[in-house]
């Protein structure tokens, strides 16, 4: 049993779970716009997510709160390096336009973890994007919407239309709501200087905003040119699920509540596409 828990913890802590969620959202985009399965771009997104997340989490200046992970750190570093090499291999098969687009998000990820900007822009000692008060959730939302909506379509030479931009905005809202249980959980970890949403307005108001945002996420579906009854039903199911996760979030929750169950919503969403 202990070995199974260690394997599961490695699955979570090495960012495999979050990478599968990124894959799921990207694949949902291809399905929604009736594009073929793109092996190289989806593989790139998996390996890039693992590389990027582990880089941010385990970079020396980024604090990681679970000391029990120390014995796994070298294994995760080796695993991350392997994923980085596979990411580069997949990138070789992408279009040049896609690589230029990826470079933008690569720079954002780099600045998110590495001290770079002048001290006057920051609320904390760390001089990176992550430490700018209140910015964290929006940076993550921007990167995820860009990578999981725009990148798969760009690499497939899909002509962007209003539905694409609405989907990108919808995905941005989705990721922000998905982040709220994490921000509530991390109240016991985060410096007050980070000015996260729960720190700024409190847990109760954060949950209220989360519920309102899930409603925005759902109703955006009706502004799209191409309406699909199955898409609407799936969006409603995901909306209700998101609401429940936000409402029942609290800082005393197990880390698995956010890191596995909440993070797994995109995987469930993809599963609904196969069912319907």
Query: Low-confidence stretches at least 5 residues in length (pLDDT < 50)?
Result: 61-66, 120-124
Radius of gyration over C-alpha positions, nearest whole angstrom:
18 Å
- How far apart are the first and last residues' alpha carbons, in Å? 36 Å
Number of helices: 12
User: Care to count the β-strands?
Assistant: 0
Which structural class matches the secondary elements? mainly alpha
Brief summary:
With 276 residues, the chain is mostly helical.
Could you describe the 3D structure shown?
It is a single chain. It contains twelve helices and no strands. It has helices spanning 2-13, 16-32, 39-58, 73-91, 96-113, 136-155, 162-185, 197-201, 203-219, 229-247, 255-262, 265-275. The chain has 276 residues and is mainly alpha-helical. Helix 2 runs antiparallel to helix 3 (39-58), helix 7 (162-185) runs antiparallel to helix 9 and helix 9 runs antiparallel to helix 10. 69% of the residues lie in helices and 0% in strands. The relative contact order is 0.12. It has one domain (2-275).
Structural key phrases:
single chain, 276 residues, mainly alpha, 69% helix, 0% strand
Topology:
Elements (H helix, E strand, L loop, with lengths): L1 H12 L2 H17 L6 H20 L14 H19 L4 H18 L22 H20 L6 H24 L11 H5 L1 H17 L9 H19 L7 H8 L2 H11 L1
Helix pairs in contact: 2-3, 2-6, 2-12, 3-4, 3-5, 5-6, 6-7, 7-9, 7-11, 9-10, 10-12
């Amino acid at each position: 049993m202990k070995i199974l828990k260690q394997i599961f913890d490695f699955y979570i802590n090495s960012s495999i779970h979050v990478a599968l969620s990124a894959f799921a959202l990207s694949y949902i985009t291809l399905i929604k716009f009736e594009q073929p399965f793109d092996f190289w771009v989806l593989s790139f997104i998996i390996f890039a997510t693992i590389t990027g997340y582990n880089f941010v989490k385990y970079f020396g200046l980024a604090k990681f709160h679970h000391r029990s992970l120390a014995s796994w750190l070298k294994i995760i570093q080796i695993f991350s390096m392997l994923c980085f090499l596979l990411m580069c291999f997949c990138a070789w098969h992408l279009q040049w336009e896609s690589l230029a687009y990826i470079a933008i998000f690569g720079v954002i990820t780099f600045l998110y973890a590495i001290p770079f900007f002048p001290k006057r822009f920051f609320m904390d000692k760390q001089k990176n994007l992550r430490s700018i008060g209140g910015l964290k959730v929006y940076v993550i939302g921007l990167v995820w919407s860009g990578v999981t909506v725009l990148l798969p379509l760009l690499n497939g030479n899909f002509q962007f239309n209003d539905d694409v931009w609405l989907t990108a905005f919808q995905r941005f809202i989705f990721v922000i709501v998905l982040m709220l249980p994490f921000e509530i959980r991390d109240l016991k970890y985060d410096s007050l200087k980070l000015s996260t949403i729960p720190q700024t307005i409190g847990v109760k108001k954060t949950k209220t905003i989360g519920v309102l945002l899930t409603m925005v996420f759902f109703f955006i579906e009706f502004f799209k040119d191409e309406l699909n009854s199955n898409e609407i039903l799936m969006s409603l199911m995901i909306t209700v699920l998101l609401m429940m996760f936000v409402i029942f979030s609290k800082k005393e929750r197990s880390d698995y509540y956010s890191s596995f169950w909440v993070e797994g919503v995109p995987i469930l969403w993809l599963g609904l596409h196969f069912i319907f």
